Description:
By secondary structure, the chain is an alpha/beta fold. The chain is 31% helix and 21% strand.
Amino acid sequence: xxxxxxxxxxxxxxxxxxxxxxxxxxLDLITLDDxxxxxxxxxxxxxxxxxxxxxxxxxxxxxEAVALIENTRTRVIDASTAHRVAAGWTYGFxxxxxxxxxxxxxxARVTNPGCYPTGFLAIVxxxxxxxxxxxxxxxxxxxxxxYSGGGKAMIGxxxxxxxxxxxxxxxxxxxxxxxxxxxxxVGLDHPxxxxxxxxxxxxxMIVEVPLPLNALPGRPELAAVAExxxxxxxxxxxxxxxxxxxxxxxxxxxxxxxxxxxHIRGNAKHxxxxxxxxxDNLGKGAAGAAVQNLNIMAGLDPYAGLIL
Length: 308
């Protein structure tokens, strides 16, 4: 029975992961009481005792936790930003590329994708891989997340009555920490223009990539974009692709689940596309991805414990 230790289990993502792992008899959860969670020796012992460690920590603390592991047996899933473009770490987005699931299964060090990059890369990677959009294209990505994406501090701000606004744009200097990840894992020549915002909703996320198809080198049709994205996720139970049916897309459409939906909309006459991913920033964008990666690494049902 594989043993699992969640380092940072009391945080927002850690709690979500714990909920998905609770009640699974095929896993042995290693837990620390409140007094031991901040004790270096107790944490080090748990990190080295576990077959699998899931890190739900700030970046520096995640690096320190990895350094505390003194054996070659313990395998790590890092939910922080610390290792998302680091050498020797496998990117834990199973649907991203052909063969990615096998790479995750064989890896000792897996880094969870960020929530925003999950939506962006899901849209962009198949289009670049299949030549519909060049890697040199100046992508832009507009996204809105529920405030739980900011962790306990932002949750406290919104729920404590200090933040009355319904919509807050941030990272105005275009230096968001997710940008390197977005550029690196699809091999873009330039960092995308990323315009994130937070809405007054606890969870859920919309990530949109607009494309002027008539301005692209090959002038791809909207139908070709749809065919490419549908083919990329045809066999996935977590990533769905749709070309119509909804008049409105909402932040909460996939909230409370571990799935993601890619919506293909646009105006074929004008040669314009709106490619939109809806997902849960705490689900497929965080805890759901970590549990999926754990399942794959442990040789279990990839969808066990997930909310489909």
